[in-house]
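Batch manifest, entry 17 of 40.
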Amino acid sequence: MATSHNVSAFSFVPSHTSIRDRSSVQSSNRSASRKSHNILSMKVSSPPPYPVRVTVMGGGNFGIALASVVAKKGIPTTLLVRSEEVAEQINEKHRHPKYMKDIALPRTVRATANKKTALSDATYIIHAVPVQYTRDYLNTVKDAIPPNVPILSASKGIETSSLGFMADILKECLGEDRSYAFLSGPSFAREICEGVATAVVIASEDLMLADDLAELMAGEDFAVFTSRDVIGVEVGGAVKNVIAIAAGMCEGLGLGTNAMSGLVTRGCGEMRRLGIYLGARPSTISGLSGVGDTFGTCFGPLSRNRQFGYRLGKGETPEEIRASMTEVAEGVDTSIALVKMIKKRCKGYRLDLKYPILFGVADIIEGNMRPLEGLKGLMNFPTRMENYDERF
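Output type: C-alpha cells
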C-alpha cells in the first residue's frame, strides 16, 4: 500500500500539526532531526556522503521546480544547465533567464555547466531531461556520475528509437548496479514554484530509496506518496500526455464539455487496459500518476500537450506548432512511439479497436486524418459494452 510522507524530512513533525505547535516541538526534535539525516544516508550499498547534496540534471521548467522543492528544505542543490552564461545568471540573480523568469529561486540553488562539479559529490541525482533527449544526454554525463548514486527520474514518455520507458533507458545507459526511482503525478512546474499544494508519487523497486526520497522532498505544500509499481507509474506518465492532446483537440474544435469528459474517461480506460497488459496495478492507474495526472494535463491551462492539441483542433499543423514552441510537448513523439510499442508488445485482435484514442491521436499527428474526422470516428464506434474485457 502506498504511504504518505507529508512531513518535513528533518523535523519529523506530522503534517496535521499547526504552525504554532510545530514551533513548540521544534527544539525538542533536534535529535530526531539528526536521525533523519542518518536515515537519508542509510543505504544497503555504499552509504552516501554527509551532508546530503542533490543535483538536478536539466534546467527546464520542471528541473527548476524540483530543484526549488529540495532547496527549500535547506539542502544544497546544484542545477546542471547547458551553458555557463545561464549558470552565472542563476547564481547572481537567482532567476532563470529563460524559463519562469518571474520566479525567484531559493538561494541554496547553485547552477553550473560543469558536469564534474555538479555530479562528483551528489548524494541523489534528479533527472529532468525530456525523454527523447535523455539517451544522448546521459551518454555525455555518465562518466561523471559516481557509482551507486541513485537516480530519480522526473521524465515521462516513451523513446521513439527504442520504444522503451525511462526505466529501460536509464538501465541501458547507467547500468543496473544502482537504484532508480520515478516521480509522477499532477504537478505543473509553475504551481510547484509558487508553493501551490501538490501531490506526487515516487515509484521504485527499491522501496527504501522511495521512502528516503519521499522524506527528502516532502513539505507542507508538496506531498509525496510511494509505490513499488514502476511500470504503472511509467504507463500513466506516458499515456496521459497523449490523452491531453486529444482533449485539447476536442476543445479546439469546440465540441463541448460532454464530449471532452467522455473522451478523457475513455482515454483513461485505454490507459488502464495497456497498464494491466504490461503488468501495472489497476490501483496505480487510478492513482496520482494515472488518472490524477491525466486530469491535470487534460484540463489544466498550463499543459503544453493540451495546448498542442488545442492548436491542432484550430487548424494548425504539427510542424507549425512545434516551430513556435519553446518547450517540448512530450505527448507528440510519445503518441507515435506508443502505437508502435502496442503493436510490438500487445498481442490480440484489432488493437485499433482496443486503443482507438491512442491510435487516433497518432494518425492525426502523422497527417493520416484530420482532428474532426478522428473525433467523429470515435463517436461513431459500434455500440457495445463500456468495457469489452469485463463481459461477465
